[in-house]
Design brief:
CATH topology of one domain: Dipeptide-binding Protein, domain 3
Number of helices: 18
CATH superfamily of one domain: Dipeptide-binding Protein, Domain 3
Radius of gyration: 27 Å
Helix content: 25-40%
Strand order of the largest sheet: 21-20-22-16-23
């Protein structure tokens, strides 16, 4: 009896000890909060545990067929499959081969839901996040997705082998720690509510990508046409170098093998194949669409949309054009000045150059009144300091700005404390003449005066710079702008090149002025370091093509990334907007309040979500109804 009692006591002791060890281990692993399939940066995700699909998809969309698309953007060729390195031009659609641990929905601003991961646990102190990888998740070669692959992906992207934007974007994630085969923890430098979501969106690829038959590895930065080993729904079926590429649905795609449909993949990727055809120029691409060579096109040029998408096939319904309302934040688009160049370092000069752009004339004469004016770095968003008109800073904004003015007086323009000024306008009672007169006065105060047939500085050097563009489609706009600059005595040269050469110049910051598009998100965060951060200005290939190196901008980006709720984010973003806008780094252009899409009659689509880019939406959520 005594032996039985001792045995029972011993067993109970072991159970208690095991339980306490488990509790201690759990606490040691990071003091985790309640785990969930989805997390939100602020509050709770829209979709509850156990949801079946996103509201904006058709869960019963027919599967099959081939989606044929033209080259997205301005690329007319490609020379690699690796989208994570700096050099070269990536094949269109390559993102179909890669996935992340979690993925956001298109009708929320700051939530993600488990994709490769089936469980997400954010530490109570928010200094780490742990993901449990689904046992079913597999790469395209059939190997399992493991925590070691996640760590490998993170380490490579943070190394000098990958594009420097990753090192900047993920800078506040200090490490990826393998806890077990399918458990990985990301550790953070600080308490930043965006970092768990950011970690979840890290692209994941296999450690075996680039492995040769003899076991040696091709250096990551030298991977070119080696087929990626990712976990995405498609594989490369064939390609013609620089001309076309065909992706086929992976018959063993892991998410299609689950006993229960994966909710964030229901209604997605409905085509058996996706074919991209790359055309030499915009005119050829449009004629190819009319001839039936591909299924859908997103049009970015107002004149072509107004005059080019006409003809018998549009009349009889074979082809359709439709403008979908654009709820996305429009961000900033404009002629960006490279302030590394001495000619652009005086803000009065930069302001003067902005006054020479006559948007109202361009919109009326060239754009068929289809555009709205860019008036902020967060245009079309409540994060814009101009969202409610030229309003004065709130108390929260003033607190931030006054503190920074005390610390860095030369970096905070006095104008930030008043109403947010609108973009220069020539609408009555204003005029181009008045704007140019003001520009001439600014230039004079900056040391530039007209003499000897040109605007010159004290040394007698003419004011001359070069505008570079990736193609000739913008030349009519540039010509109109140059005519106004010439009235000020400014000489401008224009140079166009193909996309690859232009991208190389951007990577090297080898330009004076160029058109930029800083695409906004509904919930900006760490990507702003790459776009405006001082360190990024020194990193070739970064998004900070302007060359901004401002302690005030750095401080406000930091405030944005540390925001704990939407109100704090709005306050910090509007303060940053005021500083950037009143520093005149960019001559603001315009934005399109719609997504312009033309497509064949067989194409079908669900109701669009609130926030989306048109090309990915077509690829992800549309389907084709074959003619009977």
């Amino acid at each position: 009896m005594r032996a039985q009692t001792l045995f029972a006591s011993s067993a109970l002791f072991r159970k208690i000890t095991q339980f306490l060890l488990l509790v201690a281990l759990t606490a040691a692993l990071s003091g985790l909060a309640l785990a969930a399939q989805g997390i939100a940066q602020y509050g709770k995700p829209k979709y509850p545990e156990g949801f079946t699909h996103f509201d904006y998809v058709n869960p019963n969309a027919p599967k099959g067929g081939t989606l044929v698309l033209p080259n997205p953007g301005q690329r007319t060729s490609f020379d690699k499959f690796n989208p994570f390195t700096l050099r070269g031009v990536t094949a269109p659609g390559i993102e179909l081969m890669f996935e992340s641990l979690a993925e956001g929905s298109a009708d929320e601003t700051s939530s993600v839901y488990g994709l490769l991961a089936d469980d997400i646990e954010v530490a109570r102190d928010r200094k780490s996040v742990t993901f449990h990888i689904r046992p079913e998740a597999k790469f395209s070669d059939g190997s399992p997705v493991l925590a070691a692959d996640v760590k490998y992906s993170f380490d490579v992207l943070m190394s000098g082998k990958a594009h420097p934007r990753y090192k900047t974007t993920f800078a506040d994630i200090t490490s990826a720690v393998v806890l077990s085969d399918r458990l990985v923890r990301f550790e953070f430098k600080n308490n930043n509510s965006e970092l768990p979501i950011l970690a979840g969106t890290l692209p994941i690829f296999s450690r075996n990508w680039g492995k040769k038959p003899d076991g040696s590895m091709i250096p990551f930065e030298k991977l070119a046409f080696e087929a990626p080993i990712g976990s995405g729904p498609y594989l490369i079926e064939s390609f013609k170098a620089g001309k076309s590429i065909v992706y086929k649905k992976n018959p063993q795609y892991w998410a299609d093998q689950l006993a229960k449909p994966l909710n964030i993949r229901v209604g997605f990727y409905n085509f058996d194949r996706v074919l991209y055809k790359l055309y030499s120029d915009d005119a050829v691409r449009l004629e190819a669409f009319k001839a039936g060579e591909f299924d859908a096109i997103v049009e970015y040029r107002a004149k072509i949309w107004a005059k080019g998408y006409v003809g018998s096939k549009f009349a009889n319904g074979t082809l359709t054009k439709k403008a979908f309302i654009n709820h996305n934040g429009a961000g900033m688009q404009g002629f960006a000045m490279n302030i590394r160049k001495p000619i652009f370092q005086d803000p009065r000069v930069r302001q003067a150059l902005g006054l020479a752009l006559d948007f109202e004339w361009l919109n009326r004469q060239i754009f068929f009144d289809q555009y709205g004016r860019i008036n902020s770095y967060f245009t079309n968003s409540d994060l814009s300091a101009n969202f409610d008109g030229p309003s004065k800073p709130t108390d929260g904004e003033l607190k931030l700005l006054k503190s920074l003015k005390t610390q860095y007086p030369q970096w905070v323009p006095d104008a930030v404390f008043g109403p947010m000024p609108p973009a220069p306008s020539t609408a009555p009672p204003g005029s181009l003449r008045q704007n140019l007169r003001k520009a001439r006065e600014l230039l004079m105060h900056a040391g530039w005066q007209y003499r000897g047939g040109a605007l010159r500085n004290e040394k007698g050097e003419p004011f001359r710079f070069e505008i570079v563009e990736d193609g000739g489609f913008f030349l009519r706009v540039i010509s109109a702008y140059i005519r106004n600059l010439e009235k000020l005595g400014i000489q401008v040269d224009v140079r166009t090149s193909d996309f690859a050469l232009h991208q190389k110049r951007m990577n090297e910051f080898d330009f004076d002025m160029t058109t930029v598009r800083f695409q906004d998100s509904q919930n900006p965060g760490s990507e702003l370091w790459d776009r405006f951060g001082s360190q990024a200005a020194k990193e070739k290939g970064s998004d900070n093509v302007i060359g901004i190196q401002s302690p005030v901008v750095d401080a406000l980006v930091s405030e944005i990334t540390r925001a704990q709720n939407r109100d704090q984010l709005r306050t910090a973003a509007r303060a940053l907007d005021r500083v950037l806008w009143n520093s005149y780094y960019v001559v603001p252009q315009w934005y399109n309040p719609t997504h312009r899409v033309a497509f064949r009659k067989e194409m079908r689509y669900p109701e669009p979500p609130l926030y989306y880019q048109a090309e990915p939406w077509i690829m992800q959520n549309w389907w084709k109804e074959e003619s009977k």
